[in-house]
Amino acid sequence: MPGPPSYITDERALIARLHRVEGQVQALQRQVRRQAPCTDILIQLSAATKALESVALVLLDHHLRHCVAPTPDPIERNDRLDEASRAIRLLVHSQA
Q1: Are the beta carbons of 41 and 50 closer than 8 angstroms?
Q2: Do 68 and 81 contact (CB within 8 A), yes or no?
Q3: What is the DSSP string of the chain?
Q4: CB within 8 A of 84, min separation 6: which ones?
Q5: Sign of CA dihedral 25, 30, 33, 38
Q6: How far apart are the first and last CA of the chain?
Q7: Residue-wise pLDDT tens digits, 57-90
Q8: Are 27 and 88 in contact (CB under 8 A)?
Q9: How many CA atoms lie within 13 A of 36 on its CB side?
Q10: Residue 11: its pLDDT value, please?
């Protein structure tokens, strides 16, 4: 049985987003090392968090459109919807 389709339609764009997050995390490390004001660190931390959430939403959207929706078998589709629901719950709980 073939596996699910590629989970990324535009891998380069997603990698670029992740590189930006990596740069933000490195900036956070520099800020902590030089003991930057807490508010500056919190602002940078918030930006990195939002960037990661953005990546998560891109992946979630792709999963729903390309992995769940095209599945003709209702049992498999329900399994995939359950999996997507678990992923959404994890994403939402990580923001609480």
Answers
A1: no
A2: yes
A3: ---PPPS-S-HHHHHHHHHHHHHHHHHHHHHHHTT--HHHHHHHHHHHHHHHHHHHHHHHHHIIIIIITT---HHHHHHHHHHHHHHHHHHHHHT-
A4: 60, 63, 64, 68
A5: negative
A6: 39
A7: 888 888 787 777 777 888 988 888 888 888 888 8
A8: no
A9: 14
A10: 83
| The model's pTM | 0.71
pLDDT bucket at 1, cuts 50 / 70 / 90:
very low
Tell me if 31 sits within 8 A of 44, measured CB to CB. Answer: yes
- Measured distance CA(81)–CA(17) in Å, rounded: 26
Which token pair is 93?
């709980």
